[in-house]
Amino acid sequence: MSLSPRFHEPRLQALLPDLAASAAARDRDGGHAATEKARLREAGLLNLSIPRAQGGEQLPWPDLYRAIRRLATVDSALAHVLAFHHLQVITVLIYGSAAQHDAFLIPTREQGLWWGNAMNPLDKRLIATPVAGGYRLSGIKSFCSGTRGSDWLTLSAHVEGQPYPLLAVAPTAQARQLDDWNPIGQRQTDSISVQFEDVFLPDAQVLKRPNQAPTPAQTLRNCFAQLILVNLYAGIAEGALEAGIRAVRESRAWNSAGVEQRVDDPFQQNRVGLLDAQLAGAQTAADRAAELLALAHARGAALSAEERGEVSVAIARAKVLAHRISLSASQELFEMTGARGTGQAEALDRFWRNARTHTLHDPLDYKLNQLGRWRLKGEWPNPQFYA
Amino acid sequence: MSLSPRFHEPRLQALLPDLAASAAARDRDGGHAATEKARLREAGLLNLSIPRAQGGEQLPWPDLYRAIRRLATVDSALAHVLAFHHLQVITVLIYGSAAQHDAFLIPTREQGLWWGNAMNPLDKRLIATPVAGGYRLSGIKSFCSGTRGSDWLTLSAHVEGQPYPLLAVAPTAQARQLDDWNPIGQRQTDSISVQFEDVFLPDAQVLKRPNQAPTPAQTLRNCFAQLILVNLYAGIAEGALEAGIRAVRESRAWNSAGVEQRVDDPFQQNRVGLLDAQLAGAQTAADRAAELLALAHARGAALSAEERGEVSVAIARAKVLAHRISLSASQELFEMTGARGTGQAEALDRFWRNARTHTLHDPLDYKLNQLGRWRLKGEWPNPQFYA
Amino acid sequence: MSLSPRFHEPRLQALLPDLAASAAARDRDGGHAATEKARLREAGLLNLSIPRAQGGEQLPWPDLYRAIRRLATVDSALAHVLAFHHLQVITVLIYGSAAQHDAFLIPTREQGLWWGNAMNPLDKRLIATPVAGGYRLSGIKSFCSGTRGSDWLTLSAHVEGQPYPLLAVAPTAQARQLDDWNPIGQRQTDSISVQFEDVFLPDAQVLKRPNQAPTPAQTLRNCFAQLILVNLYAGIAEGALEAGIRAVRESRAWNSAGVEQRVDDPFQQNRVGLLDAQLAGAQTAADRAAELLALAHARGAALSAEERGEVSVAIARAKVLAHRISLSASQELFEMTGARGTGQAEALDRFWRNARTHTLHDPLDYKLNQLGRWRLKGEWPNPQFYA
Amino acid sequence: MSLSPRFHEPRLQALLPDLAASAAARDRDGGHAATEKARLREAGLLNLSIPRAQGGEQLPWPDLYRAIRRLATVDSALAHVLAFHHLQVITVLIYGSAAQHDAFLIPTREQGLWWGNAMNPLDKRLIATPVAGGYRLSGIKSFCSGTRGSDWLTLSAHVEGQPYPLLAVAPTAQARQLDDWNPIGQRQTDSISVQFEDVFLPDAQVLKRPNQAPTPAQTLRNCFAQLILVNLYAGIAEGALEAGIRAVRESRAWNSAGVEQRVDDPFQQNRVGLLDAQLAGAQTAADRAAELLALAHARGAALSAEERGEVSVAIARAKVLAHRISLSASQELFEMTGARGTGQAEALDRFWRNARTHTLHDPLDYKLNQLGRWRLKGEWPNPQFYA
Fold it and tell me: pLDDT at residue D58 above 70?
């Protein structure tokens, strides 16, 4: 019995062996994980973040983050897709009206709908033009993770003359999907571009108008997103460390090691010890940030900018730690396997490729800079930009 | 208002400015901090860990650890002395009978007594010989932190033919104090050797007889000690980072930096950002370990070896992180101050010397090894030896 | 004009653009680089190490190493194949008689023959059985880099009851080639296994009999091999750094960088600065080791075990430095490119995959151990084993 | 016999044991090393850099640098003083006329004079006012290493309305010495401030007038200075590693190490191996830079700005490597000694304090920046500023 049992979502745990078994092949082939996404849906995992009021399970986000992290140990691309589905659910909850909560989330639960993300804030090419009863959407949005196979998208669009982005939802079918995602890692996140060609967006689908500044409570959306990445990175690190430990357990020691079995090699022991400690630091910081985020979210509209800043600092710290351990664990994995771990069929390099690909969308240099400016100058991270 | 206010012991906070002001001079002079120890006692800080049953404050250990960490930011030697006083209190509570709790802790509270430590497990030169009604003690014990100026000592002694050490308490006045502590750091911990010369130890002072194996719950004593060190290291790191931040705020930038003020130097910002994140990882892991330790301690005699092992793993992880950040923050401090920080009067090198001295008593190599063996082979850290 | 012009083999330089242009595609496809090997041969690059006495160019090995390193910046697999060709040439020179020098190296020069390597010392499955006029060879040898498309192999074989391996050469056509090389990196080194099935090995092809201990001068063969790996790693690092520098020059800065162009980003500047310095350390150490190796080789049979040890220490030091910078430069490359560098078509991850694959065949842990044992205990690295 | 014997100045070697024996005490006391400076002079070591034309030894600078590095292994403060004496000699040679060479260096050799440094370029408080036959000097100059006990100073001064500093020499006795050097490390470098109070500076003592831009060949003076620092840092690192190796050889292993002697502890072996390799990288880069510097200096007035830049890049690379290893070796020293190495009497922390103090006068951040800007943008390091 453990002093401090951690939540493990049992339906997800049941899927992990199959997902692990196919992960190398799916990494090689890339493309869309239709079968696997169907299994996640059938297991009911799309309902985890939906409130009980809309018939969902309302799993606390700290537990949801742990579930995502666990999934990322075997497949960080699929974990990204599932996590981003839930990010869109919380986006509707944060920005939408009570009526919109019901209108979008009850069908999500009843029909097992998937949500994709078209809210990339750096890409301002999607334009919304006001018309009677809504807007017309035209333009492109890149890096729309989870779009393929989804039913609805959240999106941000620029409205001329307006200070803030319009936030809205739209049926995925209304957008053309471009086949432009073929990276070295995170290959099955479907992070393609989508194109809207003069699509009508009715007011009922608008979550936030472009003249409204987001409140501190609303900008927690970015915190929810950032903390997903933290847990993906930490999951990749844990998956790499676990793969390394398996290899060490199953291998003979190097021939000048002076011991027979690799588990008795002192250098392997200390390598595992250091990675374990560093990973524990990242995981603990991630869990702590999740608790703060849940506290902040529960505070609702009363949340102050300072409290919001406090959450974002906790997440940034965890992100720095998770970023670094994801790269070092996935690199050190090979010191654990030795040369026998370099077969392409096993694709053990996918941990590093996944970490390396995903960690670039928000550079470590500028994440450190946010933290340093806050400590030195008291500046909170900009809530509208990767924080 | 903070989302997650941390405990700050107000009486300790009130003492910090004076302790900080004299820290450099006391580091230079070394020796015994009689004045400062008197102020800690007068402030009532010796009662923090004493149970309410004995008239004490019964502060939860997670809060006590935070108080020690805070004190260590300005004076890690004094923090060690105060923390080790409380370590002896919990030692009496863990190993002593109810009668002993009253016999030793009520006077401690009423008379403001200090406790020192003569339990160094690596030094087996103190011998206890059974006699009628007790034992006779002879021999030396080294590294007895907090002995000078203390009223009572806890001690371990070897009894011939017995499998385990005898654990006991004795009045400090019964031991001769050797003047053999003059290190490069942690200079005011009074970690001298003490010598007993045929001293009678009555049964009433014996906490554990040498034929009794300690239970898992009892070996938590080592966990309490280890987690003190973790918090001392983390406190040193925080103190160094704070000193560096002060220097950056008050200094001009390097002349080719392209900015006027050092707070605007991007390299200083990112240095602070990285140290802040790494320190947060160590602190969070330390806090988490303290929660687990408190849980385990509360379980009492029911504690299993596995649960005890779980606590020791959490502490070892935090110790690895705190060890590393204490050295790197105290070294990087000087990149923040630049050459103007190298004056001997300010003694900013004391953070590094304190960290460097204290981190050697339990080598990082073998702490990593404990963690690695546990992850690879499932071996719990040896509860009787630095874990 | 440079103070210290470095050798650049002009025929090789002329080939680099084409090799660079096809490197990503050939990394993807793996298999045998027939076209590229033909071009290296046509350029006369197989003759570089052949002595003038046999009609070759007798390029000093320090220059040859620099040429290999340069080739490795664009294609470390092909560089491995070319370097190992020359390793077999020097093997014939070191172990062979004057008659064998002529018998094997004159045709190599005249006919543009390629040599492959079947001397992997860890694999003892190839057995030579003495018969009249020679031996019969049976068994398998793994990791025979450069075998495919080669004309001759050097090989080591075990002879029952004999203390040392037999060293010999054999026509590649006499061995069956197994299709068992499909790794994550160094994909075109053709490091397949070969199988001999009762093949007659005439005495004229035997370089060293199994009852002869190799002399210190002969064990320089391992030094030549080790220093090839050093220069491959350093070349990978240089290639990665150059790719990163190109990306930085062509990219816009991150949007919160406060500058327009990425070359003006202070963090990119300092990243490049650190990698440049560390790479220079590895390169300088590699060059210095090459000078020592050339000195030692020139000493011939007079070479003492201590002098041989001195060379191996210099190489081991350079190998540690090159190993580390190859991994860090190929990882940091992506901080330079940002997310736009993660396209699979460009395959910029091949630098890391190449480094990661190749650095595992002689673990860093035990290379450090050789150096440490030498410094602490005066033990020279074992000349028969990766040193 | 070694393949590649390194120069060891025998007169210096003979002094090292005594200097090592008193180093800890002199570090504690600080102040002026009069006795030790007298011994260096008596040994003839002040003549090493003086040309044969002025009766000196004209030791090649690469050898002189190695001698300085060797001295720095036991006493980096004294090494700084001796090296800076030679820096002033080369300054007179670089900037002075043939007549000045004779006028200043022949007495230096004949009378065994010491030179100190008042050329700190960041401090512009020393003013030279033109008068008939020369200038009048007034003002302060800080960080004038080697002033105490010296006979002559080189100095730079600001002349109003002039674009460049005036460079000159002056008798030390003409300046008032301030007692303002009491740092945590490099305690015996006598890097005090000096004050000139309306002192007449005759034209004969002027090396360079303030309207003359220095030529590339002249700005090599900064390269000579920078490379001194490189070798001081590398010497500190080597001294720390040697101290650590001695401690490992003389100590028992940690009690859970599984071996008796510390030299057999695998972690100690690999720690030494890594430090040895990194130090070798720094030393090799320093030697290489010294060869380039000697080449450049030999080129005389023909030296181009590009060639000068090439030298400065080589030195900057070596400086980065030496800076880093000086800090890590002096920190890791204590992992080698364990707790028994922390006695204040032995003062083994002086390696770290010396490294930490000396490395701050030219921040690593901006040294990396110079290298990065050169690699990315082709900008040579500014020859007038720490390069």
Answer: yes
Residue-wise pLDDT tens digits, B356-373: 999 998 999 999 999 999
pLDDT under 50: residue ranges of chain B = none
Residue B299 belongs to a domain with what CATH number? Answer: 1.20.140.10
D36 within domain boundaries: yes
A362 contacts in chain B (CB < 8 Å) = none
Q: Are C255 and C246 in contact (CB under 8 A)?
A: no
| Strand ranges of the sheet holding D206-208, from the earlier edge strand across to the other edge | D115-118, D152-157, D166-171, D206-208
Confidence of residue C234 (pLDDT cuts 50, 70, 90): very high
**Closest C-alpha to C154, from C80, C237, C214, C94:** C94
| D193/chain A closest Cα distance in angstroms | 32
Q: What is the pLDDT of residues B138-156, one digit of tens each?
A: 999 999 999 999 999 999 9
Write down which residue in D62, D83, D114 finishes a domain.
D114
What angle is formed at CA D76 by the lines to CA D72 and CA D78, rounded to 5 degrees? 105
**C248, C307, C368: residue with CB nearest D270:** C368
Given a cut of 80, whether residue C4 has pLDDT beyond it is no
Neighbours of C155 (CB within 10 A): 28
Same domain, A20 and A136: no
For residues B257 and B355, membership in a common domain is answered with yes
Q: Which two tokens stand for residue D23?
A: 């180093």
State pLDDT tens for residues D316-362.
999 999 999 999 999 999 999 999 999 999 999 999 999 999 999 89
CA distance B82 to B11: 14
Token pair belonging to B357: 């001295």
CA distance to partner chain A, nearest, from residue D265 (Å): 10
Residue B250 falls in which region: left (phi positive, over 0), alpha (psi -120 to 50) or beta:
alpha
Q: Which chains touch D (3+ CB pairs under 8 A)?
A: A, B, C
For C196-230, give the DSSP string: EEEEEEEGGGEEE-TTSPPPHHHHHHHHHHHHHHH
Chain B residues touching C259 at Cβ < 8 A: none
Report the CATH number that the domain containing residue B177 is assigned in CATH: 2.40.110.10
Mean pLDDT of C234-250: 98
Which residue among A114, A133, A152 closes a domain?
A: A114
Same domain, D294 and D354: yes
- Do residues D146 and D231 share a domain? no
Chain C residue with the nearest C-alpha to that of B265: C266
pLDDT value, residue B337: 98
Quote the domain boundaries for residue D91.
10-114
What domain count does chain B have?
A: 3
Mean pLDDT to the nearest integer, A276-285: 98
Q: Does pTM top 0.95 for this prediction?
A: yes
pLDDT greater than 70 at residue C224? yes
Across the interface, do B183 and D361 touch by the CB < 8 Å criterion?
no
> Which chain D residues have a beta carbon less than 8 Å from that of C292?
3-4
Please name the residues between 280 and 319 in chain B that touch chain D, using a CB distance below 8 Å. none
Residues in D closer than 8 angstroms to B364, CB to CB, are 335
**Chain C residues within an 8 Å CB radius of D248:** 376
The CA dihedral of A186, A189, A190, A196, to the nearest 10 degrees, is: -120
CATH number, domain with residue C78: 1.10.540.10
Q: Within this chain, do residues B270 and B169 fall inside the same structural domain, yes or no? A: no
A367 and A290 co-located in one domain? yes
Judged against a pLDDT cut of 90, whether residue A233 lies above it is answered with yes
pLDDT at B1: 58
Indicate if C95 and C180 belong to the same structural domain: no
Single out the residue of B181, B26, B149 nearest to residue B85, CA to CA: B149
Based on the domain organization, do B238 and B370 belong to the same domain?
yes
Tokens of A205: 């689908």
C-alpha span between B112 and B91 (Å, rounded) = 18
